[in-house]
Amino acid sequence: MIDHSELVMSVSQRADVDADTARAAISAVTGTFARHMLNEARERLATALPDTARYAATTLGEIESPDGEQVIEEVAEQLDTTPERARRLSQAVLGALDEAEPGLVDLPTGLRQALEPA
Q1: How many domains does the chain have?
Q2: Whole-prediction pTM value?
Q3: How far is CA 92 from CA 13, 39, 60, 61, 116, in A?
Q4: Cβ contact 29:53 at 8 Å
């Protein structure tokens, strides 16, 4: 399991934001991106996350179509920020998760492409 304080610190450093913003980003990004992951990948993500972030990734139901730009806009809306900042925060969260547990975040191609700088 990934240590929550280490995850928050890593996201904070990667995105150059305070801890509260990092926590909000972790919740928004994991919850939003989880809805677009295959069930097996979603379960791996939820199992690896600390209790404080696990709920966001335990989305049930059908996988939503991965329109990458819509996902970034959804994160932006949840965080009340611009799509570009949401993209940067998403990169920070997913990068921190991948650093903590390589291969954990298995995103469809459309989502990976949406994370590339605009």
Answers
A1: 1
A2: 0.86
A3: 8, 23, 25, 26, 12
A4: no
In a domain, 68, yes or no: yes
Task: Pick the closest to residue 36 from 111, 89, 99 (CA basis).
Answer: 111
Range of the domain at 79: 4-105
Instruction: Tell me how far apart the alpha carbons of residues 111 and 47 are, in angstroms, rounded to a whole number.
Output: 21
Residue 47: inside a domain: yes
Q: Tell me the pLDDT tens digit for each residue of 3-57.
A: 989 999 999 999 999 999 999 999 999 888 888 887 788 788 888 877 655 555 5
Residue 110 lies in a domain: no
In a domain, 45, yes or no: yes
Token pair 């990976």 in the structure block, residue: 112
Tokens of 31: 């919850």
Quick one: tokens of 20? 């509260």
